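Supplementary notes for students who missed Thursday's class. We covered one full example, reproduced here. Read the sequence, then the structure, then the short commentary at the end.
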Amino acid sequence: MSEEKNFPCPSCGALVSKDDIYCKKCGVNLIHFSKTVPEAPSSLPERLPEELYERKFSLTQRFYKLLTAPSEAMRDIALAPDYEGVLVVIALDVVLLSVAAGIILQKIQFSGPHAEEISAMVSDLLIAATFIAGILLVAKWAVKSLIVKYACDSGSRWNFKTTASITGYAYIADIIMGIIGICIGWFLLPTLRLESTDLEAMRQAFKDYEAQLNWLSLVYTLPFSLFGLLWKSYLGGLGTHFGTKEKCSLGMGIAVFSVLSLIYLLFSFVI
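Structure (token representation):
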């Protein structure tokens, strides 16, 4: 007798088989009782419950892996999202904006009786502009994350925290390119000297300075911005692919991030 067909006798408890008509020990009729014994399951469940994902990398390891092994990093970020890394990236971006404003302030030199007052006013304007840019950066991150959530869902029903974490960490490309841009600007950005007593001379100096900045933007800023855009889109596409349990393809994720980044890039150049 196979163990699958054995069951205890309802009368005496002795082990009997489904094929037995009577219990060999007490003689009770087993025909009716054997029909009520449930069959053993024929197979295992089609799919076992998914195991909870455990975060593999610390915050510093995630940033390092984004540069050395982006696929591993974005998979870890997508499956174990957090806001801590996003806040660090945004804070670094604001710091870079402040450094860039400081460089611009050093490159603009005023002379004349009202030089100190004008310099202080320009400094206050740059501080205000940096503060506003930081607020806009947070707003851009939130809006972009929301758009990515719905554009790349592909039936995965992933949550906003995952998209926000992926979008935020992808901005590490902007941080790296921003550092390179600041280094280039420090050496290549020309000095603007303005005489506060001669308005016409100041106006002409601004025109000449704007022409030089446009040339620098075309030769250096635009190529670096495009490279950063592609890098950021690739990171975002990886995160989107893993965050949606691979329901959204890598190409689709890259395309969505590229279009959104390109729109912002064109908008920033226009204004």
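Commentary. The chain has a mean pLDDT of 82. The first strand starts at residue 6 and ends at 8. If anything here is unclear, bring it to office hours.
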